[in-house]
Amino acid sequence: MAREIPTASRGENLRFLLAYTAATLLRGPYAHGPRGASLAARLDATTHALRAAQEIRRRHGGLIWMPRWTPGTTGRTLLVLAPEDVEAVLSGPAELYSPDSPDKHGMAVFQPDGLSLSRGRMRRDRRDFAEYVLDSHAPRHRLCDRITRIVRTEMTFPGQITHAEAGLAFRRIARRILFGDPARDDEMTTDILRALRSDANWDVNWRAVRRLRGRRDAKLLELFTRRVSGYVRTATAGSLMSQFADAPICADPSGQVAQWLMAFESTTTAVLQCLALLSTHPHQRAEAVRNEDYLRACFMEAVRLWDPVPSITRATTGDADLRGAHLPEDTSLLIPVGLLQRDDERLDYADRFAPEIWLNGTAERDWTISPFSRGEAGCPGRDLATLVAMTALSTLLRGHRYALAAPEISASRPLPRTIDTFAIKLVALPGPVDTRAQTDQEVSQSAAGS
Ligand code: HEM
């Protein structure tokens, strides 16, 4: 007999919808902004959404129909909270559980030809192309030496690191890696994409407003595509563009670039979060400076704790059997990994900095711990993002010890569930750099004095 999927009540649906989409909308789904991030942190939007999800799971189990989802998407969405169901969906064929879900359609504003919006043959071609250029299956990207050199030269922050400064440095890094050194100061290309992404934010709920901006967006997209195509043609040696010539055929190579350029912002966020954690956790910092595997685990913890891509969405392209439950074609699925990774009813490490889970198999075994997603549609840029982040972190940690001036984080209290990454400010401490663990008192004194 088929597994029945219960339906959440209207009240439960409304509570979860308000809490979850409020967090998403405040952050800005396609372009995050400081005002929304600050408000989301003050309201602690993640905790409200987590509590709503936990209550639904307590009453109905781990797979639930949410009868009403946001306007602009489908009428109902399947909320996936059980680890076994998360695993079944992510490890299932991307052909059937397609990442091209209605929730992502706002992306068409800035990348109508993007991998995430494709299906069938087109998707396979674009995915093969992305995997080749991003060198997804190699232990080290084939351009690793150049990439690490770029990152090292850009990691120069005299005195302090703020989100604004780090953001600019990572924009330069992204352009140099993608397009080559001549693009280092081409802020215009990044700004055009940013403007398109901000407009895409409106697509989530305010289609009428979006329509008003349609003409402007068409022009911006044309301009962005022209600039990217110029870089593709030039194919500066050592850039990702230089890899296009040998990559598997893809109908629109330039159309893949917007998502890559955008994704470097998540890498910036993750690096800042990791530095904030290491600056407030002296024992973990001391180990991270000595041991590269441990530093990598710290980076993964930073993305688990405050996931820059907190929702994984799918749409079924035909009838599907999800562990005995029948899903009709066009079922929208939501896996709220950002909540599941902080699920304090399941995980005893939910609210603490626990790099060891990435070293002892705990994270690997549990599919709800998937900040880069997994399976056929998992992030193809994971290793590149990790390479960039690891190089940035080890360069900065080798040069300085930092104290976190804002926001407030402490090793002796549960970590906040919502963080305002834009507010992160790290102050370099005077004195020689060493690998000794700072005492908690030293850290808080330096932060208070800055
Ligand atoms: C900390 C940094 C990053 C995080 C946390 C992250 C996370 C994710 C997640 C969760 C997905 C969704 C996968 C799914 O639907 O199952 C994704 C997709 C994707 N990411 Fe990343 N990502 C990061 C950096 C990057 C970078 C640097 C690139 C490229 C340069 C990149 C390229 C992509 C692409 C092309 C997709 C679409 C995959 C598909 O639809 O098949 N990401 N990423």
The helix-strand sequence is HHHEEHEHHEHHHHHHHEEEEHHHEEH
The 3D shape can be described as globular
Number of domains: 1
Ligands present: protoporphyrin IX containing FE
Low-pLDDT parts are 435-444, 446-450
Seen as an oligomer or otherwise, the chain set is single chain
Number of helices: 17
Q: Indicate the mean pLDDT.
A: 91
Q: If strands are numbered along the chain, what order do they take across the biggest sheet?
A: 1-2-8-5-3
From the alpha carbons, calculate the radius of gyration and give it in angstroms.
Answer: 22 Å
Helix content: 40-55%
What is the structural class?
A: alpha+beta
**CATH 2nd-level architecture:** Orthogonal Bundle
End-to-end separation in angstroms reads 64 Å
What would you note in describing this structure?
Helix 6 (144-154) packs across helix 16 and helix 7 packs across helix 11 (257-280). This protein has 17 helices and ten strands. It is of the alpha+beta class and 450 residues long. The chain has a single domain (10-449), classed as Cytochrome p450 (Orthogonal Bundle), CATH 1.10.630.10. Residues 435-444 and 446-450 have low confidence and may be disordered. Helices cover 50% and strands 8% of the residues. Strands 1-2-8-5-3 form a five-stranded mixed beta sheet. Strands 4-10-9 form a three-stranded antiparallel beta sheet. The chain has helices at 10-27, 34-43, 45-60, 83-91, 120-134, 144-154, 163-179, 187-203, 207-212, 214-234, 257-280, 282-290, 292-305, 337-340, 362-365, 382-399, 440-449, and strands spanning 63-66, 77-80, 97-98, 160-162, 312-316, 320-322, 325-327, 332-335, 402-406, 425-428. Bound molecules: protoporphyrin IX containing FE (HEM). The site of protoporphyrin IX containing FE has 27 residues, from helix 5, helix 11 and helix 16.
